[in-house]
Amino acid sequence: NAGVMQNPRHLVRRRGQEARLRCSPMKGHSHVYWYRQLPEEGLKFMVYLQKENIIDESGMPKERFSAEFPKEGPSILRIQQVVRGDSAAYFCASSPGTSGRSVHEQYFGPGTRLTVT
Amino acid sequence: AQTVTQSQPEMSVQEAETVTLSCTYDTSESDYYLFWYKQPPSRQMILVIRQEAYKQQNATENRFSVNFQKAAKSFSLKISDSQLGDAAMYFCAYFIIQGAQKLVFGQGTRLTINP
To answer: Per-residue pLDDT tens for B59-87?
Structure first.
């Protein structure tokens, strides 16, 4: 059973370009979370999605950032008109989303390191 | 505000010795989970151990164990018989069962193992 997959692993963008980060959850998982890690800091929650629904985007900047998790295909975190401050590692996690206490089990992908030049 | 505090930015320990990493948290909720994650240089987040808040018994996973003090909102990680492969950043985190479905992380502790 493959784990959570993220691509690309490294992404370099110039200021003003768009960045698209992809996340394929573990097989059978229907809940996806995105976190951002700035250098020398812990992970900060950005957004929580279920298939075709954004459940909680309280941690996501109001402008330039968007996320989706379509019925088919990976979850996408999109950053428009990137700035240097967007340089960070972006992690995706997935969970089963079933009822009961197992919903809390979040499994992380390897992350995408975004560098804005 | 819901926060997690790791007061030790860096720790070091001799190989084969025991080390304890501290973590305190602040939440008004009563039902939650606590976690320790390890992040080696590869940056992969690896779950080390978890503790359900409703359980009084401290969780143990091989050489890793926790000291969970619910009233004090303290959740420390003890690593016994430290190995070189334990060198990493360690993050404490919690998850509220009935509420925002997100992990709240501390700032991390960098653990160095001295051979």
So the answer is: 999 999 999 999 999 999 999 999 999 99
Q: How far apart are the first and last CA of chain B?
A: 41
Sort out which chain A residues have CB atoms less than 8 A from B41's CB and list them. none
b/e burial code for range A87-111 (CB count within 10 A of at least 16 → b): bbbbbbbbbbbeeeeeebbbbbbbb
Are A43 and B95 in contact (CB < 8 Å)?
Answer: no
Inform me whether the pLDDT recorded for B58 exceeds 90.
yes
B43, A110: Cβ pair inside 8 Å? yes
Test mutation, B101, B105, B107, chain A, max A CBs within 10 A? B101
B59 Cα to chain A: minimum distance (Å): 16
Contacts of A19 (CB under 8 A, 6+ apart): A11, A13, A78, A79, A82, A86, A114
Phi, psi of A55 (to 5 degrees): -90, -40
d(CA B65, CA B98): 26
pLDDT at B109: 97
Amino acid B31: pLDDT: 84
Residue A68, number of CB atoms within 10 A of its CB: 16
Which residues of chain A have a CB within 8 Å of the CB of B96?
Answer: none
pLDDT at A116: 97
CB A8 within 8 A of CB A23: no
Other beta carbons within 10 Å of B113 = 20
